[in-house]
Specification:
single chain, mainly alpha, 2 helices, rod-shaped
Length: 66
């Protein structure tokens, strides 16, 4: 070994690996939960607005109201 190389103890490498695995698992859970959660109602169904005539949620004009 040369004087410039510093070797870490095996326990330190093991703990670093455990922490990285736990962090990766936590991030996977958060991303999975985010991607499987239902969207909010006002974004998912704009045509549910009572003042909307068109399927896109556009408001009715005076000539279209009956």
């Amino acid at each position: 070994m040369t004087a410039n190389t510093v070797q870490q103890p095996t326990g330190t490498r093991f703990l670093r690996g455990i922490h990285l695995a736990a962090l990766a698992g936590f991030l996977a859970l958060v991303i999975g939960d985010h991607l499987t959660s239902p969207p909010t109602a006002n974004v998912a169904a704009p045509a549910d607005d009572k003042a909307a005539c068109a399927p896109c949620g556009a408001p009715c004009t005076l000539t279209e109201k009956k």
